[in-house]
Each structure stands twice: as structure tokens, then as C-alpha cells.
Amino acid sequence: MIGAPPPPTAEPIVDVRGVSFRYGARGALENVSFTARAGEFVGLLGPNGAGKSTLVRLVAGLAAPSAGSVRLAGLDPAHAPRRAVAQVCALVPQEPRIGWPFTVREAVMMGRAPRQGLLALPTRFDHGAVQGALAACDLVHLADRRLDALSGGERRRVFFARALAQEPRVLLLDEPTAFLDLGHQVMVMRMAEVAARGGLCVVAVLHDLNLAAAACDRLVVLSRGRVVAEGPPADVLTAERVREVWDVPVWRGENGVTGAPVVLPALPRDR
Ligand SMILES: Nc1ncnc2c1ncn2[C@@H]1O[C@H](COP(=O)(O)OP(=O)(O)OP(=O)(O)O)[C@@H](O)[C@H]1O
């Protein structure tokens, strides 16, 4: 963890209260409440199908809750103008899509759209934001490469850079470390931490409990559409809770270098 999170008294910029959501007859979220503040890095954890992506989509305004309320810097994101929402919040979805003929630099420049006038040429501020995002994501050497000539992991970094170039107040990341090698997993988590320490509110869906424990200020655990735990990583990631929620017996220890909690499956091997 880099530096300290904001005091718990700060106003939440993401404020989800008593939210439920259904896909047709199937309930995905049930009475979920959750807040996140500027300067905070919050990890959303939970097994497959727990409702994490659905919650992120509601915060980004891509869907409206069937009950309860979502506020994003005071906006109702499902009903506010998309441009106003995009000036506050950038989402890096699980499987971002974009037309292939673009270069990395052009794709990252798309993040500037909510800040540009219709048909206006990019300003030096736009170019500066794009260059900064490319540098932060270790993409400068790939800037003129076409997206279809990148590996899956490289493309994920491009979408992260596009979100940073958007200069949002809230950064929503859905599994930002999927398909990345260990070095780039750590790089992305550090970028998220640095963004939070710089004043962004960062909310990331994560499956790697140990990366989440090492980097996040606070963890929120979803299970079957409900919040079942919330708090600092060391309090949330107990062996009992991981076994209960993920249905796997684990060994719970501590990273000898950082002090962060570590959980590893504790299944005896069949020999
Ligand atoms: N488009 C959809 N139509 C119908 N049901 C859906 C749809 N998307 C998700 N669901 C269901 O809603 C529930 C929550 O899904 P969601 O994708 O939010 O879970 P998740 O925690 O992000 O899972 P994962 O870790 O597997 O990505 C699951 O039961 C899922 O099957």
C-alpha cells in the first residue's frame, strides 16, 4: 500500500444505497450498500456470479437499479447525460471493445472525448493527457502500433491508459489484472494505488485476493448478490470467511516483507 487513505469522515463520491437489480427473473443484487471516497482504493471481491460486474455497471450508469439509489459525485448516473457521467467516471470493462484499425495513441485519445468539443481538434492539454497516460502504462514504445497487432495483455493496458487520459474522478476497473503477467499485474495495481493517492476514487473488481490485500485500502466482499463483509484487508480476509464465501479451505498468513495478509488454498494433494 502506498501512503495513507483519506479519513473515513470524507464525503463518499460513490454512494450506493440499498440497491437491488434483476436480470429478468434472476436476482443479481439484493439490498447492496457501498461507498467509496476520493483518494481511496476499494477492492470488490467475490466468487463468480456474485454480482461484482453488475454493481460496477450500476455505478457507471450502464443500468439502473430496480430498488435503492446510486449516486456518483451527486449525479444519478443512469439518468444523467452520458457526457456528464463520463467527465466524472471512467470504466475499464472486463472485455473492452473498440474498432481495430486504431493505433494505441488514437485509442487513448478517445478517452479525451468527454472533454472535447464536437469536431474540435485535440488541444495541447489533450495531447499532454494522452502522453502522460501512455507513459504511466508503459506504452510509449507501442504508441504507433495498431491495436490488432498487440497481445491481449498489452491491449488491456491500452484501455487502462484510455481511462486515465479521461482524467476522471472515479476509476472503475473490472478485473484489471486478468491476462497480465506478474510484472504487469503489479504494475497495474501500483498505477491504481498511485491514482488513488493522487486523489482519484478507484474501485476495482479483483479475483486475486492477495493482490487485493496488498494494494487496496478497503475490501468489499459480495456473495450471491449481497455484501457479506467490508473493511480493511486484514479484517476481511480471514481464513473462515474465505472458506465460507469461496468454498475453499485456505491457509491464512502474512507477507513477510509487506505485512499484508496472504491466503493460499490448503487442499491436501492426492498422490
Ligand atoms: N446479461 C445477463 N443476463 C442475465 N443474467 C445475467 C447477465 N449478466 C449477469 N447475469 C447473472 O447475474 C449474476 C451476477 O453476474 P455478474 O456478472 O455481476 O457477476 P460477477 O461477480 O461479476 O461474476 P464473475 O466473477 O464471474 O465475472 C450471475 O448470476 C449472472 O449469471
From TrEMBL:
Domain of life the protein comes from: Bacteria
Any one Gene Ontology molecular-function term assigned to this protein's record: ATP binding
Keywords from the UniProt entry: ATP-binding, Nucleotide-binding, Translocase, Transport
Keyword Translocase annotated: yes
Domain ABC transporter, chain residue ranges per copy: 14-249
Record flagged with keyword Translocase: yes
Function: Part of the ABC transporter complex HmuTUV involved in hemin import. Responsible for energy coupling to the transport system.
Identification of the protein by name: ABC transporter ATP-binding protein
Species in which this protein is naturally found: Anaeromyxobacter oryzae
